[in-house]
Amino acid sequence: MDEVKLSPRLQAVAAFIPRGAVVADIGTDHALLPLYLVQEGIARRVIATEAYSGPWQRAVENIAKAGLSEKIELRQGDGLAPLAPGEAEVAVLAGMGGATIRDILAAWPQVAASFVRLVLQPMTAAGKLRCWLVRTGWRIAAEDLVPEGRRLYQVVVAERGEEEETDLLAVAVGPRLLAARHPLLTRYLRELLRREEEVIRGMLKAREKRPEIGEELKLREERRRWLEEKLAKLAEEEKENEG
To answer: How far is Cα of residue 54 from the mean position of the Cα atoms in its chain?
Structure first.
């Protein structure tokens, strides 16, 4: 098999894998990430899991074609079920919804707690995933924003410990992204604000028929104001830097 080329999204995930680690790639699909990690000498060994038969078969073929069966062990099964606690130091859960990632980690707590680092790439609900991580004994160690096509993807790295950021809105948005003033932060916050405004417009229309959404609407408006303030502050900082 030729040298594996990763998408920008998976390349960003790979950048957070410590060299020499034993990695568990959960939901490996065609095993492209494990192949890359081994070919590049990043991972010492990879345990790749896949629940679905089609992708699992493709992964079997790709690993065999590359001649890397000794360093990449493929296991079929759901979530963390194919793993025992302590088998891997780093877990990757990429290309799935944030709620799915949360549910997988919560369903196998002993296995999840044995990881030193989680490298997560949620396709949706990244904010809820961050908040859940912080509530369950993880801290947000690093984050990245990755443009690919028309989308902006998030990568969240979590390690055991207490999160230093106490503002829950900042935790949901991305505490390390905010602290580091990520180069794509303005674009990211604008996208979050646009989505929030769309939800608020829909809730305002539905409020007469569903008065119970009043409390949620207040929270949404608070989040909108928070995002507007952050964007205004970033704009001021940019002007100061230009001056």
So the answer is: 24
Please report where in the chains the tokens 């989680």 appear, as a residue. 118
Q: Are residues 33 and 129 in the same domain?
A: yes
Measured at the CA of 240, the angle between CA 238 and CA 243, to 5 degrees, comes to 110
Are 154 and 221 in the same domain? no
Residues 103 and 202 in one domain: no
- In tens, the pLDDT along 18-53 reads 999 999 999 999 999 999 999 999 999 999 999 999
In this structure, which amino acid lies at residue 96? M
Coil, strand or helix: which one is 38? helix
62 domain-assigned:
yes
204 shares a domain with 148: no
At 215, the pLDDT band (50, 70, 90 cuts) reads: confident
